[in-house]
């Protein structure tokens, strides 16, 4: 506030108010709806976010994603780490004990799920228990933020900063910048006393949030939003020894300016505590799904980064002839003499391969040959000789004037 502006006439800090009258305000409180509320699922449906096995009022059944067969084939590929020689019956019995002793949701995520997921190559790509408060609302704004027990995303530095800024509300779940972004693999876990219905509602919410982010990444830099009817997001539910997995994918809005619709489809389910072979199958699909979603996420990020680089390369070229830097380099007599040699073909090829743009300012500048400078000693000698000639001329002129005056 400027000192010339009048200050507020409110009471000063530390003064005592003598009035007991309370101001009357008209406020409207809107209750947020979460997975524990029975109206949560209907809110999602009203917003075009549909659970597994949804059926339209006219009897139509939502479509499966176009890459359904590809996903099933990829996720069913055997993993050597889960062969009987690597994952023994003894390890399975250890898993059963961990499941039996996990009474709370937290125990499931810390002692049961890690056995299913196996080794994590990059722990900075995994998080959980973090409310998605930074994401834009998916429906009418009354739903609580998503909060998956586990989610897998990308490191922030993988994605160009410009893309992060532009797609912020679709791909960055939290205001804590170092957490994974663009998540597309989620886990909802419940203990024995937890509600399977609540886990299902959470999964039907988290999945579309991730699918929206993947669609935004693939649409970045495009003239129109990309809706290819493919699924790039998978959610998992673990409850009471049962593992279920689902895809989530968006479809194009049915009307101009409308919202896209999101659909959830179950892939498979396993009774993970029943026998070693069933566990191996379920864990195989889980680990393959984690790896496959990372591949899809990395591909979407690479596409967005390429578009960001293309837009930068398309900026107007800079005319290096107007740089004062070149002139000062060529005229500063206090610097040591130098000569810039022309680039060899080998050096030019190496520079072109390292460059991110087809024609960068650095490449244009490298083609410019600076004029050779004279040494500082040569410059000094030149100045001294010029000065001597100038003084000699002035002295000669003065003597000539004196002789003329005497005449």
Written overview of the protein:
With 407 residues, the protein is of the alpha/beta class. Helix content is 41%, strand content 12%. It contains 12 helices and 7 strands. The protein has helices spanning 40-46, 68-75, 89-100, 105-117, 161-166, 168-171, 196-219, 276-313, 324-331, 345-354, 361-366, 376-406; strands spanning 49-50, 126-127, 150-154, 181-190, 233-239, 242-251, 261-271. It has a 7-stranded mixed β-sheet with strand order 1-7-6-5-4-3-2. The longest helix has 38 residues, at 276-313. The protein is globular. The chain starts with 39 loop residues before the first helix and ends with a helix.
